[in-house]
């Protein structure tokens, strides 16, 4: 038996603000909220159903946004990659920028197939090529 990746934790100053941003980007919802800690993820499953799914195979991990006092000081060592599924990469980048992201320069050459953005607290992530049928085929 193997372990399952079930949660990803992201330290931040304002968990509520980042929850709003990331639920907007991913189409997820807030699953749990308490002062200083917000869990977001795909909704629609009760605890027993989710437990059975985790035991039987990989599922999408949730994201815990935990309030911490420290500032972000350097480029992330781990980051998220997102892929648009129903629009072009350019359209998705514009949508995510409108949600509060900013463009990030982490030393790209300009020839990359991905776009580097940062969430409202400066955490870098990449928007990869579109997986929408009109933009991607096998």
TrEMBL record:
Transmembrane segments: none annotated. Pfam families: Glyoxalase_6 (PF18029). InterPro entries: Glyas_Bleomycin-R_OHBP_Dase, Glyoxalase_6, VOC_core. Residues 4-130 form the VOC domain. SUPFAM superfamilies: Glyoxalase/Bleomycin resistance protein/Dihydroxybiphenyl dioxygenase. This is VOC family protein. It comes from Nocardioides baculatus.
